[in-house]
Amino acid sequence: MRILKYGFLVCITLCLSCCCISNIGDFIEEVTTTIPNTHAGKCMKESLETIKSGDISQISAYVSEHFTNECIEEQGEDQIVKIYHNFSKLYGGIEFVRVRESSPNSFTGEFKSLEYGSEILFGLLVRSFYPHLITEITVIFPAIPIQNKPDTNLTKK
Q: Does the residue 71 lie in any domain?
């Protein structure tokens, strides 16, 4: 009788474990590694192509054509161009890693600096009506790593 009771408990425990394991997928967030084909996603893809060029005149033309006047006035056209250009100049370009947040009119993704391997958050908000111009840009840069320098002895000899 004792063996039957313990066997029954083991069977119940295994059944509950299997149920929990089969439902665990519901709790794991799906990692998306492609930029969606939404209005914001398309603007992000275009932004990445422009950044990849590293050409300041191409970046300037892109900002003039794809950002709202309100965004340019608020952020300053030179500042937006500088941010896009710094992706190439300071970080050696960026590579898309995964989607952080996405909806038809907003996109935030995690990107990796090709030079340092550090993570950068980059997001765009676009108008919901045509033309789908960029109304807001969000960029969170990490600190740029200090290059290795030879040790300096601070004690007097």
A: yes
> Three-state SS for 122?
strand
Cα distance from N-terminal residue to C-terminal residue, the chain: 84
Q: What pTM value is reported for the model?
A: 0.71
Residue 114 lies in domain:
39-140
According to DSSP, the residues that pair with 136 across neighbouring strands are 125
CATH number of the domain encompassing residue 84? 3.10.450.50
Q: What is the pLDDT along the chain (157 residues), one digit of tens a residue?
A: 445 444 444 344 334 444 444 444 443 345 678 999 999 999 999 999 999 999 999 999 999 999 999 999 999 999 999 999 999 998 899 999 999 999 999 999 999 999 888 899 999 999 999 999 999 999 997 665 545 444 444 444 4
Q: Is residue 31 part of a domain?
A: no
Query: Domain tally for the chain?
Result: 1
Residue 143 in tokens: 């600190």
